[in-house]
Amino acid sequence: MFKGPSPRHVVSSYAAISRLLCNAKFVKKADLHKNVPLYIFTRGEESIAVLWKSEQSKDISMILGLPDKARLYDVQGNPIANGKRLLLTRAPIYIFAPVAPDKMEAAIKKTKLSLPELELCAWQDRLDAVNVACLNLVNEALPVKCTFAGKEYKLDLPASEMKTLEVPCASKPNGKQSIEVRTPKGFVYATELVPEYITVPKVSSMKELMARPPLFTLKSVERHLSNVDYAANKLWTGPDDCSAVVRMGYGEKSLFLNVLVKDDIHQHDFPEPVMTWAGDCVQFAFDSKHDAAMKHIKGQRILFDDDYIFTAALVQGKTIRLINELEPKWNAKPECTVTRDESKKTTEYSIVLPLAAMNKLSAKSGNVFGFNLIVMDSDKPKESAKYWMQLTPGIAAGQNPSLFKAFVFE
What we know:
Elements: E1 2-3, E2 6-7, H1 9-20, E3 25-33, E4 36-43, E5 46-51, E6 60-63, E7 71-73, E8 79-80, E9 85-88, E10 93-97, H2 101-109, E11 112-113, E12 118-123, E13 129-136, E14 142-148, E15 151-157, E16 162-168, E17 177-182, E18 188-193, E19 197-200, H3 206-210, E20 216-218, H4 221-224, H5 229-232, E21 242-250, E22 254-263, E23 281-287, H6 292-297, E24 308-315, E25 319-324, E26 335-341, E27 346-354, E28 368-377, E29 387-390, E30 405-409
Parallel strand pairs: 19-30
Antiparallel strand pairs: 1-2, 3-4, 4-5, 5-10, 6-9, 6-11, 7-8, 7-10, 12-13, 13-16, 14-15, 14-17, 17-18, 20-21, 21-22, 22-27, 23-24, 23-28, 24-25, 26-27, 28-29, 28-30
């Protein structure tokens, strides 16, 4: 609260909210805009509205139509002129007016905001269709028109809600595909679908998979190292320190994964299963329905129960562990071998996952899913890995499956 002999700036904010809302009764949280929280209180003959802008967006301009006797205060309790325009920041604004709570809410909802009316995204969970999600950000219904591949589709968006639309497309998309959504006010919102997919081959066994070329390698400073500074300060000294060659395929009953890791020192001495991620290991995750972009604009930015994340490790040089992080009591019986070859300085992870136990992932030809894989590297005893090699960000240091690469079953 204090820095030296002086109070921090936040102290005046606490004092202001204590004074301004003293003995006030909470009425409701009102819907104004996804990025503008609005809370209504009442005290005596007055109503009080508290609002601010959330998210890391630009400050918001509001055109107000408040009663003449309305009083406005900033986060520190300083009066603000009751003008026609108000600038919203992340610091709360307090509005007092001698009206009923419903009239206060109605007056504020009539304001005009310099904010978008909707958020838009598109994705594919199979090659012959495109999914479009529109999130209505305002507190009134929006009848919109969606244009894709020269065709127009109508979509009615309820206030502050999301709706999705599935539209057919060519079974083999070629190049960027643009989706536009037009609102009644004439605003056009656009997004692009870029069908850059890594093809997962159909194989009958791990032996057949090993005869196929790798799907990808992890060895680039710029594209795969979790932080390029680790190369500059020699924590990571090159591909011989930590890199990986990755193969993946699928069959009628199984998904096959082989990861050959080059690592100068294999270090994992964390016996507790909850610490499997901390030492040398491989983590891999599936955005099963490839719908993370839709969840992302709803504010859901982690892996959910329709996804999978696994950790595989060779612990203390002898114990092989494979953990389903979202389902610790997973009843499946996957095959997992981890072999260390000190002469070649390699660790090979060979994993067979039963598709019957992964029913959230539809392993059928033409289906699309998100996938990511990281290799953790720990070189010192009892020290958790400080860096990792990754296909994309989104597993370690904050889950975000919308960043995963898109894969398609052959």
